[in-house]
Design goal:
191 residues, alpha+beta, four-stranded mixed beta sheet
Length: 191
């Protein structure tokens, strides 16, 4: 059986339209062991642990906490070799359209934020905040006449039950109600 050298490297490379330089570069690369194999495995494990959201900077911090000092360029290179691309989670809730909200809700308050004490005007809004390391949504209902919070609800999901729960809490503490006004009426369109 004849070997590649017996035919001549120059002749074989010409046969396959390949330069000798490319042949020797490929041969050298195959002979060189992957010295970062252990690091690549560690990066893959940390990436999978983050459910695909960790990027090169996050991975650098996590590797450093394990006592492994490595540069961003090497992390980026090893991520690219393994096809790891960081992706951030998207919003899981949708907003209603503003046009739909403006046709359903009329401006009854007409920017008069100081109602008389004979009528009870409730105003509501939502926000989000971190509680014990996790994001939660807070809905608050306020009595505009007394400038007092009369209802609230805190939960992990931002859905209609958040707003309904805050309104129910407000109705238990409020005697008479004329109108409910939202700064963002789209929130009340969810099903």
């Amino acid at each position: 059986m004849k070997t590649l050298k017996s035919y001549g490297i120059k002749r074989v490379c010409a046969l396959f339209s390949l330069s000798e330089r490319a042949y020797y570069a490929q041969r050298k690369q195959k002979a060189k062991p992957n010295k970062h194999l252990g690091l690549a495995v560690e990066i893959k494990a940390l990436f999978d642990e983050s459910r695909g959201s960790a990027g090169k900077r996050t991975l650098k911090v996590r590797l450093k906490s394990k006592g492994i000092e490595v540069g961003l360029a090497l992390i980026r290179k090893l991520m690219k070799q393994q096809g790891l691309v960081s992706k951030q989670p998207q919003k899981r809730w949708r907003q209603g359209t503003l046009e739909k909200a403006s046709t359903l809700f009329h401006n009854v308050l007409n920017r008069q934020f100081n109602p008389t004490s004979e009528t009870t005007v409730l105003c509501g809004d939502t926000t989000y905040l971190k509680v014990q390391g996790e994001w939660h949504y807070l809905a608050v209902v306020m009595n505009l006449a007394h400038r007092q919070v009369v209802g609230w609800r805190l939960q992990k999901q931002h859905d209609s039950m958040l707003v309904v729960g805050a309104l129910n809490h407000a109705m238990l503490t409020t005697e008479r109600t004329r109108d409910v006004v939202s700064l963002r009426p789209r929130q009340y369109l969810w099903e």
